[in-house]
Amino acid sequence: MKVKYINNPDNLPENTPSSALDAANKVDETYQFRSNSYYQSLINWDDPEDPIARLIMPDAAELNEWGKLDPSGEHNYTILPGLEHKYRSTALMLVSNVCGGICRYCFRKRVFMKGQDAILKDIDGAVSYIKEHKEITNVLLTGGDPLMLSTGKLRKYLEALAEIDHIKILRLGSKMPAFNPFRIIEDESLLDLLKEIIAKGKQIYIMTHFNHVQELTDEAKEGIRLLRSTGAELANQTPIIRGVNSTPDALANLFRELSFLGVPPYYIFQCRPASGNSDYAVPIEEGYGIFEKARVQVSGLAKRARFVMSHQTGKIEVVGMDGENIYMKYHRAAEEADSGAFMVLKRNAEAYWLDDYAEIHAKNPLDSLYHSYGPE
Description:
Elements: E1 5-6, H1 18-28, E2 35-36, H2 37-40, H3 51-56, E3 78-80, E4 83-87, E5 90-94, H4 123-132, E6 138-142, H5 151-162, E7 169-174, H6 176-179, H7 182-185, H8 188-199, E8 203-208, H9 218-229, E9 233-239, H10 248-260, E10 265-269, H11 284-295, E11 306-311, E12 314-321, E13 325-333, E14 342-346, E15 360-364
Helix pairs in contact: 5-8, 10-11
């Protein structure tokens, strides 16, 4: 199937309502629009709450003043443009500034803006850094979307990294299985490349970005099947997005259907306070309630996800809540001393980010994890 990419709202299909076109053109002046003919075909314009439209079509509320262009402080961990090293064992490479579509809640809007220098250009420099840092065992290719690269260009990255002995896992963060599964279905050379890298003793993980079951079309399922047939492991991550998967039933349906396809839920993210995201974000405590109510509806294989926020200081997991407090711990930390640290915070129903909590009652390092309620 020939999929046409759409960068100008005026080129959207004729069945697009005029109100949606007006909003798209208005927002596009600030935050770039991009979609494609396949993904647009999934929209049911007779449904005013259609989740696909919510995910891809610009909304005037994006122009509300809120958030930052770099909400997770990625610049603090940038070694050279396009190479980040935040967690000891993992390096991140921004290999593309193009996606199959631009999610309206995107936390890397800056990547698509003119004048930004966020994408990796010095591949040799990045590979040299990774070679020198033997503590790195994982490399995540993201962007943008690495599957928007030609297979030949992707091969250059994967082959260079596969030659490094201490690199054991290569991860591809991609929404192409949802945005345009034909990228997978119609390119046998991509599947061959994945098989070749795995045959060299490297494990490939493809981190998919399905946000709603409506994206799990027959074509998407075929793309998943083909990726899994290469020996690659798949896992899914999504933020909780207002109006898309912000009910327990919607999130549970996503967990359930993904588990049937052999794609375990991995991370459920707190929507980052990125510029333009105010209308898509759900407060942390509301989101945690949605997450837990979704998990009780599904089997163990479908409930392996963790509810986390990618904070500047690390990946923080929400682990519980009672009438007075909310409990969190560092799932991964930028500072090794914080890894596993447990936090007790006074509840705040209006908190969207860790910084919104005024009171931290306790922060216990890993070696005294139960100090707050255990014996001295």
